[in-house]
Amino acid sequence: MRVCSASLVALALCVAAPALAQIDMSGAWRTLRHEDLPDRGPGVGLGDYSGIPLTDAARQWAQSWDASRLSMPEQQCRAHVAHYIYRGPMNLRIWEEKDPRTQEVIALKHYVSTYEQTRTIWMDGRPHPPGYAPHTWMGFSTGRWEGDRLVVETTHIKQGWHRRNGVPASDLTTFTEHFVRHGDSLTQITVIRDPVYFTQPMVKSQHFGLVLRALPQRSWLWPCTAVVEVATRDPHEVPHFLPGMNPYIESSRAEVNLPSDGAEGGGASLYPEWRELSTNKKRDSLRTTVGPAESVMEPLVADDEVHIWPVRDNVYMLVSRDGNSTVQLGRDGVVVVDAMTESRAPKLLAAIQSLSDQPIRYVINTHAHADKMGGNAILAAAGSTRTGGVVVAQAGSAIAESAAILAHENVLQQVSAPTGQESALPYAAWPSETFFNDRRDFTVNDEGLVVQHMQNAHTDGDTLVFFRRSDVIAVGDVFSTTSYPVIDQARGGSIQGIIAALNSIIDLAIPDVDYQGGTMIVPGHGRLSDEMDVVEYRDMVVIIYDRVADMINRGLSLRQVQAQRPTFDFDARYGAESGPWTTQMFVEAVYNGLAGASR
């Protein structure tokens, strides 16, 4: 009996050991900025990339960076991302959120005074969301205890900085943190992985001290309101330097006697033996071929299913390998923006019917490609139109027995054909309602919808659909988080139209107070986004446009421009060497669009 009791006690102690090992990290903490002080206080000089395992692409991105871009209204209040924000001057409050019945810790909360960010570290074992979920400044974090050490894994982070003198952090960055408390000291060790702009993980640490006296309320506030700082400036300007034209890099390095070979950064420069190499060997060691030409992004959907992601209220994003659809539900029925391909449409319909038993009232096409219109006939046949009287008497009852298909007039012209000729799509898939001016407005499900034409962008028939009350915009293929803009020149697409369309989306969207969330944007392909995601994409497109324009002005041919690789610092994120839309095809479309034209 005693042996059994002893075994039970030992078993209980073993089971309880992880819980007993956990350390309470609650309280208010202040940063102890004795480590890497120049990087954490006033900031290091321009051109100082030492200590960072950056790629050649990241180096070019940083050297093209113009800090005046942060003075643009859409950039002024952007927050620092989670793997960077702890490095600056800040106060940190940590507390536990517990289940009121079991008292188990559901999540740890971090309130960061800089930019007033609240971060949630989930401790209840939930998985990370899929790749098509939105990204935020703080990302999505899950934690676990390893003894008395808290280990946190974070994904779904917006584009930000590795160093705020222009060294970019891609939106594919992930990181692992280790939090260790020793009395009144807290240590955070962070391992950062950026497949786009790093050759290897980067490790950094920082320390915090416990605050024993209550801080005044103003110590926790960081309000920001965007304003127009330069009244005469183009509101859509994207300040940047052309490659090799930044006049401040070398002068900034000279001020602190920083040699160029060390300032260039790179993984090889982080090792002691690098100091013994000759100048030429140092330069050779920093050249890297890590992902410069092909996107490292994994497919957001790996199967053949249609996945559902709630956006807001009664609006959902439906995601497949063919692209995205947007669905609005309500008492009037269902509105579908983009019908996917004909082969995918049955699964799209099944997903819609799992959300609502109401009929489909409208199918809206954002343009005339098969991945947006192929399923028109299948979806329309599953719906009905609220009409009657003279319309039914003249057009026949069939018009009321299917959903209306709405698109710009140019879409109908592209998919139809004169009598006796073969059309691109069967008659049942053609738009049954069109408009020829800039926009079409109507109300459905107690919500105003704006269907707005975007001229000569992806095609000449592009539209965005703005759900006004829900504050959601479906934008079709003028914006994507997975590739460079696809410009269908045969159907009237142009780089100028793409830029104008992106600016229109930015003008229409309103971000939340910390420049994330607010108006949600459903791209034709990729993850659910917000205004800041479109801003970053627009900036990339304008920078490439300006580089190609400069090369044309210098007399370079198309092949010479392609050889110069004006997209180099973005290729690892958006580029493709094969497939239906390659980087070379994108550059050619930009080049052709610039011939004799202006943005």
Task: Describe the overall structure.
- The structure is a single chain.
- This protein folds into 2 domains: 26-43 and 79-216, Lipocalin (Beta Barrel), CATH 2.40.128; 307-594, 4-Layer Sandwich (Metallo-beta-lactamase, Chain A), CATH 3.60.15.
- It is built from 17 helices and 24 strands.
- Strand 13 (315-320) and strand 14 form a beta hairpin.
- Mean pLDDT is 91; it is low at 1-18 and 388-396.
> How much helical structure, as a percent, in the residues?
10-25%
Structural class: alpha+beta
Low-confidence stretches: 1-18, 388-396
Rg on CA atoms, Å: 27 Å
The CATH superfamily of the largest domain appears as Ribonuclease Z/Hydroxyacylglutathione hydrolase-like
Notable characteristics:
Lipocalin; 7-stranded mixed beta sheet; 2 domains; 24 strands; Metallo-beta-lactamase, Chain A; alpha+beta; 599 residues
Tell me the layout of helices and strands.
Elements: H1 2-21, E1 27-32, H2 37-40, H3 56-63, H4 82-85, E2 91-98, E3 105-112, E4 117-122, E5 140-146, E6 149-155, E7 160-163, E8 167-169, E9 174-182, E10 185-193, E11 202-210, H5 249-255, H6 260-263, H7 279-286, E12 307-312, E13 315-320, E14 323-328, E15 334-337, H8 345-355, E16 360-364, H9 370-373, H10 376-381, H11 390-395, E17 404-408, H12 409-415, E18 433-435, E19 439-444, E20 447-454, E21 462-467, E22 472-480, H13 495-508, E23 520-525, E24 529-530, H14 531-553, H15 558-564, H16 571-574, H17 583-594
Parallel strand pairs: 4-5, 15-16, 16-17, 17-18, 22-23
Antiparallel strand pairs: 1-2, 1-11, 2-3, 3-4, 5-6, 6-9, 7-8, 9-10, 10-11, 12-13, 13-14, 14-15, 19-20, 20-21, 21-22, 23-24
Helix pairs in contact: 13-14, 14-17
